[in-house]
C-alpha cells in the first residue's frame, strides 16, 4: 500500500491528527483524517479495498464516511465499507443518498464527530449538489478545487462554479486543501501555457515534476499556495484578463473564469 502521511503534527483541540492520502484508481485520492484511535474519518471512498487494507494495518475502524458528491469514483466503496463496518454513518448531500449516504447534509450544517466539527459548504458546479467539508485547517473539497486547477463543470454553470471556488478561497490562507485527484502537473502545464512569463508557476512546475518523478503526491496543498499558482483563483487579476482577451472594464469576473475553464477543457 503506497499511501502518504501528512502533517502529523497538526493538533486539533489538543488531539494530534494525521492526514493520510490513499491512492485509488488511476489518479484519485481517498482521504483519511485520524487520531490513530477512535477518530477515523474517511472522505470519498471511491473503492473500499485500499481503505480496508490501511485500516486493518492500523487496527482501526472508520468512525464516519464523508461524501462530497455523487460520482462513482467518490462513492463506489461505500457499500462494501458499510458491510464491513456495520452501523457506520455516511454523510453526504442529497445527491449521494442513492450511493449510500445515511445522513443528508446541507449548507451550514455542522457535523460533530467526537471532538471534531466539520462545517458543510455547498459548492455547486461540478455537480449541483457538491459539498465541501471544512474542519480547520483541513478542507475536503472533492472535485471543486484542484491544485493549480478546478473541477470540470458537469451539472452547474460557470458562474456557480466560480462562486463556489471563491467561497473556498475565502477560508484562511493556511487551509490545507485536500483535493480528490492528482491533476496538478497537467494543470500547471496549462497555467504555464497561459502565463509563460509567470515565474512562480514556472518554478512550481519544476518542483512538482521532481516530486512526481519520485512518486510523491502533490497534494494536499494550501490556499496560500493556490492563490499564487492557480489561475482559476486569479480571475480578478488584470494580467490574466488581458491574456484572455478581455477589456478589463466590461465583463464580470466569472466570465473570465468561464473563458479560462473553456480553454482548459480543450487544452
Ligand atoms: Zn466528480
From TrEMBL:
Binds 2 Zn(2+) ions per subunit. Residues 27-181 form the Metallo-beta-lactamase domain. Zn(2+) 1 binds at residues 69, 71, 126, 143. Its EC number is 3.1.2.6. The keyword Cytoplasm does not apply. GO terms for biological process: methylglyoxal catabolic process to D-lactate via S-lactoyl-glutathione. Zn(2+) 2 binds at residues 73-74, 143, 181. Signal peptide: none annotated. GO terms for molecular function: hydroxyacylglutathione hydrolase activity; metal ion binding. It catalyses: an S-(2-hydroxyacyl)glutathione + H2O = a 2-hydroxy carboxylate + glutathione + H(+). Its cofactor is Zn(2+). It comes from the Bacteria. NCBIfam families: GSH_gloB. Belongs to the metallo-beta-lactamase superfamily. Glyoxalase II family. Monomer. Thiolesterase that catalyzes the hydrolysis of S-D-lactoyl-glutathione to form glutathione and D-lactic acid. This is Hydroxyacylglutathione hydrolase.
Amino acid at each position: 500500500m503506497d499511501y502518504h502521511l501528512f502533517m502529523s503534527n497538526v493538533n486539533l483541540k489538543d488531539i494530534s491528527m494525521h492526514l493520510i492520502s490513499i491512492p485509488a484508481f488511476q489518479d484519485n485520492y481517498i482521504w483519511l483524517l485520524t487520531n490513530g484511535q477512535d477518530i477515523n474519518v474517511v472522505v470519498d471512498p471511491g473503492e473500499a479495498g485500499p481503505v480496508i487494507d490501511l485500516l486493518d494495518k492500523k487496527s482501526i475502524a472508520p468512525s464516519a464516511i464523508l461524501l462530497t458528491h455523487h460520482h462513482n469514483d467518490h462513492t463506489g466503496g461505500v457499500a462494501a465499507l458499510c458491510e464491513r463496518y456495520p452501523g457506520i454513518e455516511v454523510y453526504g448531500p442529497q445527491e449521494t443518498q442513492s450511493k449510500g449516504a445515511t445522513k443528508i447534509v446541507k449548507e451550514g450544517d455542522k457535523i460533530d464527530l467526537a471532538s471534531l466539527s466539520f462545517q458543510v459548504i455547498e459548492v455547486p458546479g461540478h455537480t449541483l449538489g457538491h459539498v465541501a467539508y471544512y474542519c480547520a485547517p483541513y478542507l475536503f473539497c472533492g472535485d471543486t478545487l484542484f491544485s493549480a486547477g478546478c473541477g470540470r463543470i458537469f451539472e452547474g454553470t460557470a458562474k456557480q462554479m466560480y462562486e463556489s471556488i471563491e467561497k473556498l478561497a475565502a477560508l484562511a490562507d493556511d487551509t490545507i486543501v485536500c483535493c480528490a485527484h492528482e491533476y496538478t502537473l497537467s494543470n500547471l502545464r496549462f497555467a504555464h501555457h497561459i502565463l509563460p512569463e509567470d515565474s512562480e508557476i514556472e518554478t512550481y512546475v519544476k518542483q512538482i515534476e521532481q516530486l512526481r518523478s519520485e512518486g510523491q503526491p502533490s497534494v494536499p496543498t494550501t490556499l496560500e499556495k493556490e492563490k499564487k499558482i492557480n489561475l482559476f483563483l486569479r480571475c480578478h487579476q488584470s494580467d490574466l484578463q488581458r491574456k484572455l482577451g478581455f477589456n478589463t472594464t466590461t465583463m464580470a469576473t466569472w466570465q473570465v473564469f468561464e473563458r479560462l475553464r473553456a480553454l482548459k477543457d480543450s487544452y
